[in-house]
Amino acid sequence: MDFTHLLSERTGKMGASAIREILKVVGQPGMVSLAGGIPSPDSFPMERIKQLTDKVFTKYGSAAFQYDLTEGFTPLREVMAVYLSQRGIHVSPEEVTIQSGSQGVLDSLCKVLISAGDKIAVEAPTYLGAIQAFKPYEPEFVRIEMDEDGLIPESLEDVLKNHKIKFVYTVPTFQNPTGRSISLDRRKKIAEIIIKYGALLVEDDPYSNLRYSGDALPAIKTMAPDNVIYITTLSKVLAPGLRIGICVAPEVISRWMVITKQGVDLHTSTFSQAIAAEYVGGGYLEQQLPNIIELYRPKHAAMLSALDKYFPPGFTFSRPEGGMFIWAEGPKGLDMEKIYWKAIKRNVAFVPGKYFFTQAGEGLSTMRLNFTMSEVVVIESAIEILADVLKKEG
Amino acid sequence: MDFTHLLSERTGKMGASAIREILKVVGQPGMVSLAGGIPSPDSFPMERIKQLTDKVFTKYGSAAFQYDLTEGFTPLREVMAVYLSQRGIHVSPEEVTIQSGSQGVLDSLCKVLISAGDKIAVEAPTYLGAIQAFKPYEPEFVRIEMDEDGLIPESLEDVLKNHKIKFVYTVPTFQNPTGRSISLDRRKKIAEIIIKYGALLVEDDPYSNLRYSGDALPAIKTMAPDNVIYITTLSKVLAPGLRIGICVAPEVISRWMVITKQGVDLHTSTFSQAIAAEYVGGGYLEQQLPNIIELYRPKHAAMLSALDKYFPPGFTFSRPEGGMFIWAEGPKGLDMEKIYWKAIKRNVAFVPGKYFFTQAGEGLSTMRLNFTMSEVVVIESAIEILADVLKKEG
Questions:
Q1: Between the CA of residue B14 and those of A118, B134, B261, what are the distances in Å?
Q2: For residue B377, is pLDDT > 60?
Q3: Chain B residues inside the 8 Å CB shell of A62
Q4: How far apart are CA A349 and CA A340, in angstroms?
Q5: Which of A16, A53, A252 comes nearest B3 by C-beta?
Q6: Is B4-44+287-393 in CATH node 1.10.645.10?
Q7: What's the CATH class of domain A7-44+288-393?
Q8: Which residues of A touch B235 (CB under 8 A)?
């Protein structure tokens, strides 16, 4: 039987499968993927996870396998409150909620806030997973301009002045897809603007721990605590397969997000949360972080120098001080999806940048390159091949 | 800042917190709870889980902690396909998807199928968690009548004849909240009716493994495979904290549910799924099931005999052959929520039955009693106390 006629209106509008389709070939044997957004398995502290898993059995017993509070596993909320406070986000454990990855935070946030047609402001480009979380709730996207220093405060103020915005969504540090970070000066201005307009800003912060050079930037949450929903995750500093997202939101929103989450998955895996509680609480996150940074630093350097060496003139690329991505932009008129298919034939994959824009026709000549999943020599040769494909096209 | 004005229209309509509020007192020290719907921690095969967790580290290594396919962890889909086939549901691994608990299945199902105002048909009473999953999508609930033999086929046919129904939702075996099972004869009729009307039926089957007497009943899915979305879970036969739900749905719906789930949580905890794969694949579910049944059988018997012995005349209750719940109904005019607060004062909790109905004013004199979480002697004394409260009220 074909039940297509039963699909909801939102399903018809989602059309989220274009990128899934083009990325299907990435898994082919022999493919070098600069397409993913995933951490290297070498970054997972496997011995430590094993040891903490054993501890979870003795410390929590069957409680680690039972139904638990929707808000999150209490010991994890407690240690995350301490962890966040050390980073200038002063919260009590009751203000911290645990969700099923950052993705889970974004979904419940939309369910609580977005009615069809509501406006949300996003950077252009923005995180693809956020677009996928937002779209089923049928918002209207309003574009905020960015440059090498991240989101432009004046553009944000324009948007807030001229539109009724439910929330502003930003990845301020080592943004996915561009790798860009909002400068300290701009963060201060952004904080002032959202306070001035009584606006709500969603600060998605998965990457700020992955800094290879330069000085740490404070979260916008520290500058406008009442106006910011802060999201972080253990996916890049422990293991994504545990699916642990962390959220600090204003009380009324947080309370509704919990009620909403109860309908979505009751709660996040108790066992995963218990392991995460022991990892963060035991100080192992801080211990492991330098190892992860040392793992990624040469990859990051290798990609930047290969881009310098091989990429044809007319191309610009971001020079992030951390994170997982570099963003490259080719000359106007270049069709990066066409390049994608040619590169695939030579066993190199990346993500055409247009998928990170909410409006069709934008970012056609851009690409996102990931450097965490491949070895240094592989990155160098992959960039050389990509450059060759681009030159033949140019 | 108060961001109440930013809440979505659906949030305003959810109002899902009444039961949360009344159940808050259940956690008080000294309370005997017949309110929960949770398995006894004594049913968790802790030694086995520990052993299989160790095996996951050696067998899958870092892959058990990495991002994974939204559809589910391949080894788990493979063993679940075999498991379901043994129960008459013949599917390939590709047709099985893993979600974050049954709750996750219900959420993504609604996202894919329900536009505001669409009609879904539910038993009266029905599973509270399903109501909580459905409500944010703003459906209209159409009531199907049931009696001691479960959902009444004639009522279902009436509903399908007179309404445009997106799907029919039923828990056919040891229903939550009533404990009732749809008889074999009725299952056949229901299968015929949904085929005749080209209707979609959602069969939620968490409890059928927990049978203490009588003969197994085949899933409706086995009788109308094209028209049934089959949902089951490992929460009652392994451990709910792992959050593993299993779904078999028609292809077009399943595909959209996966795309939807990608936006909701990317995928279910890989580590949880790997443990589940080893548990089901190693035949340990079948090994553990008799232990769980022997654990619950005396509790089930104790509650039924205490009800027989102590409950006042004018009360009826279900006599299920399995599951986790018994449903009691008092004389018309009795306000079971009033009884609830009096029982709480005497340290016994249950769930007033009205919360399992989608329409206000229904089930006022009913209650759901859980027997899996308390010891036999505790069940006996709790029922005696409840009976005493009811007699004083009557």
A1: 19, 10, 21
A2: yes
A3: 41-42, 44, 46, 239
A4: 7
A5: A252
A6: no
A7: alpha beta
A8: 67
